[in-house]
Amino acid sequence: MPIRLYRIPFLAIKIILNQMEPCEIFMFSQTSSKARRLTKFYKMSLALILKGDSDHFMFTRTSKKPTLANSIYLSDSPRQYSKSVVFDQNKKVPCDIEFKNNPDWRRGDFVDIHANCLNRMDMRKSVFKYFVDSFTVRVTSLFLSSNNIGDRYQILEYTKRSGLNFQKINWCGTCADDPFFADVFDGLTANFFAFRLTRKTDMFCHTRFQNARVNKLFLIGGQLNPTANLTDFLNCGSVHISYHYESVGKIPDEKLNAFIKSWLTSNSPLTLLQIEMRAPNWKQVIKQVEGVQKDGRVYKLFKDGVEAAHILYRDKCFFFVEKKLRDSSDESDLFLGCVQTKCSLAEQLR
Amino acid sequence: MSVENAPVVDVDEAAIPVEKKMYYRFESNDKKEFRVSELAIQQSETLNRLVEAMGYTSEDVENKPAIAIENIDGKTLKLVFQWCEHHKGEAIPVDDGSVPKIVEIPEFDAKLMDIDNGLLFKLIWAADYLNIVQLLNVSCKKVANMAQGKTPAQLRRVYLLPSDEEDEAAKRAAQEAQDPRAREVEEEFEERKRQGGNSFF
């Protein structure tokens, strides 16, 4: 005998929905727009993995505890689909739904949905819109490893929309050398981790960073635009730039000098700048910077008479560190060398 | 303690308890009377406040009429009081706002709720009305468990969820029921359109 859910008191419905697993709440949201108004308070985390031949959305409950990831695979390959799923405009999309169970978990239910689509980009936007409209969604990460430039560009532009609340974008591999990507950082606020670990690349050689508002920016294994100035990063929180081993990259001392002067005269939120490079010529770097004190291998910078930041060269990297950050951080964490940074980044991306 | 042994007693069936604790008398909307211990009542915020406000002595409890609970029938109230007696003295969970809510259904509760969905529905209403937090949690958990491994179409059947089209039709019907003249005007308009009239007015 069924139970008439909507006749149950609202408080109890809320409790029922809170006790459901993310895969069940997703299925519930599929039943009608009235159901979606109810699921709107449910906090869901969403991630998108963009690969060359397939797209993979993962959704879990926003929780500190690890939960099993549910998946939506978008595919344009011909296949027999027995069910349908609705993402946008009430259009039914053919799909297959596979419920799975992991006995190692206390309640190990999760779901794989294989949805058929002809226009992948439209479908991605529909899925994002569906989650934003149906749940309190937090997009935890976007993993871009597709070689399709158009895909990457469109999806990055899409991340700037309000309501998506992107937390982190992982950029894997090459192809950001296209002039398309010159303005991709304009207004971008999500943490950005770009890496190319296998070979030399011109990644981001055309990109401008003046309007980037990124809290954490990692550019590993790429080559910066030669005309880029370090002052472009002044609106970011922390920046890590690491060239590939084969590269002979070095930021000119004049640019380091200009960056230090700009930072001291501005209210920049930048607290850490790490650049893998050959050792700088310190005389040039601190030229005309007032009140610099050398303490061992560290140069102390002063702002209005107060010690404000340190610059130093360590583990093949140039470091600019705000004094407050250095005081409050573990030294070994703060001064990760380039190899360690790459390793820890690779760890994060897994 | 099994469901059968729970100390909720219908007045006409069982002997008066020998313990010196105070037992309150409640009456369901179908005139069934129950004796419930003071400690068990504490599980229900609503009843607890009610008996506190009444300030009954043990003599009052015996001499005055049973406290009427008008919204709940005897069958449901029996389940509620059985639950309260079994869990008496247990701490009442405080909602800390954490999500997800991890709720385990204890064996006793599972047996108690081995009932048809109609009665489960009434039990949830009663738990909500009487503000019995933990009973509401476990009964809701049972309803939430019904969604396990269900597709949207199956969920519609399990929870009797209307589709958008059905919702729309119900809304229209409700509007028409509220204003029959609107329906008449609409029909008249359609009729004139069919007859090729240029203007309704």
UniProtKB/TrEMBL annotation, chain A:
It comes from the Eukaryota. InterPro entries: F-box_dom. Pfam families: F-box. Residues 7-39 form the F-box domain. This is F-box domain-containing protein. It comes from Caenorhabditis brenneri (Nematode worm).
From TrEMBL, chain B:
The keyword Calcium does not apply. Residues 26-88 form the SKP1 component POZ domain. It comes from the Eukaryota. The keyword Translocase does not apply. Residues 134-178 form the SKP1 component dimerisation domain. GO terms for biological process: protein ubiquitination; ubiquitin-dependent protein catabolic process. Residues 169-194 have a biased composition (Basic and acidic residues). Probable essential component of SCF (SKP1-CUL1-F-box protein) E3 ubiquitin-protein ligase complexes, which mediate the ubiquitination and subsequent proteasomal degradation of target proteins. Regulates cell proliferation during embryonic and larval development. Belongs to the SKP1 family. Pathway: Protein modification; protein ubiquitination. Pfam families: Skp1, Skp1_POZ. Residues 166-201 are annotated as: Disordered. This is Skp1-related protein. Keywords: Ubl conjugation pathway.
